[in-house]
Amino acid sequence: MASRINVMIPWLSQEESDAVAEVIASGWVAQGPRVARFEEEFAAAMQAPHAVAVTSCTTALHLALIVAGVGEGDDVIVPSFSFIASANAVRYVGANPVFADVDETTGNVTAATVAAVLTPATKAVMAVDQGGVPVDLDAIRTVTDPHGIIIVEDAACGAGSTYNGRPVGAGADIAAWSFHPRKLLTTGEGGMITTSREDWARRAKHLREHAMSVSAADRHQSVLPPEEEYSEVGYNFRMTDLQAAVGLVQLGRLPAIVARRREIASRYQDAIAEIPGLRAVTDPSYGTGNYQSFWVEVEDGYPTDREGLLEALALADISARRGIMASHRQPPYRELAADSVLPITERLNDRTLILPVYHSLSAEDQERVIAVLRSPGGRSE
Fold first, then answer.
1. Which residue range is the domain that position 98 belongs to?
2. Residue 380 confidence (pLDDT)
3. Residue 339: which CATH number?
4. Cα(307)–Cα(323) distance, rounded to whole angstroms?
């Protein structure tokens, strides 16, 4: 009997277990030296001057908007075609998400879709590397820079992707990253901010620890620590050394993770190119994706619709997922987005699905997936 094929399995090994055991043996499990080392090595890998580790990409986006000066009454352009956290972070700071449509081939906002929804109150654009496909940042800057609009890159899915020969996020004012288990690098939960601005990084580190004047690490290392002061309302967004230890191992494995996922994606692309009615995500001309999500659009002319294909895959014990959500269709944003015109977002939301991609996916199991794509009316063998 064929075994179940999952949509994603993290690449975890004994190395991560040993790294965590070492942290436990040290007696220092909260934010400490491993977090500092993870920040340093992640910043170097992403070619960013500064990195700040936090609890999730959502909290990274939240802090990024705060340190960038986005707040009450500001508009932030954000794709609806993204996990709802992108829009939610805008709401957390009291700003208004303004939904932009996306390019049909990349699933990302473009210079044209951003320009179409600019308002006099636009303070920032949240540019998402959707599914690991790099966003065309330079093109968007031709629209935003003349107005002094900040770009916050939501690179939640982007670790290992490149833009014009550099890691994604390297050209943004500030970027946010995710280490959720669905991402290439995982710490269970966790996130990171990268930025070229030392003042923004310093304030983010301050805010993630309740805005204390003395860091928790310094307090714990002191026999008689100085009295701390809390200069503003802060947050508890600290990463633990347990998570950072896992992250350091994962970061060292990133090139191998990307190479393996691109190998699997290439095989899917070759097969799907020969199946009428299916269109696979591919690299844009200006960069390379990490295939954090391998999505396929079910077009007219295919024997079934997206829901039918998902059912056919499920019957073959293959776990796929509906494609990227459309946040403007969700209850918190329906009224706000009532006048939004987002035809590409809605089409992709209705027609795309995500196929299994993970390091241990065997050639035989991938062929099972491809067999269903070729013949959704019959079961794969």
1. 14-252
2. 40
3. 3.90.1150.10
4. 11
All residues at 6 or more sequence positions from 237 whose CB lies less than 8 Å from its CB, including other chains:
54, 55, 59, 62, 63, 207, 208
Look at residues 132, 148, 145, 26 and name the one whose alpha carbon lies nearest to residue 82: 132
Cα of 330 vs its chain's centroid, Å: 19
Give the tokens for residue 92.
Answer: 């957390």
Residues 342 and 247 in one domain: no
Of 252, 268, 296, the last residue of a domain is 252
Q: Domain for residue 25, yes or no?
A: yes
CA dist 71 → 63, 315, 347 (Å): 11, 48, 32
Give the residue numbers marked as catalytic: 183
Domain count, the chain: 2
* Residue 349 is assigned to a structural domain of this protein: yes
pLDDT tens-digit series, residues 201-251: 999 999 999 988 776 666 566 656 667 788 899 999 999 999 999 999 999
Say how far apart CA 130 and CA 363 lie, in whole Å. 26
Q: What is the pLDDT of residues 294-336, one digit of tens each?
A: 999 999 999 999 999 999 999 999 999 999 999 999 999 999 9
In a shared domain, residues 155 and 178? yes
Domain stop point among 252, 277, 304? 252
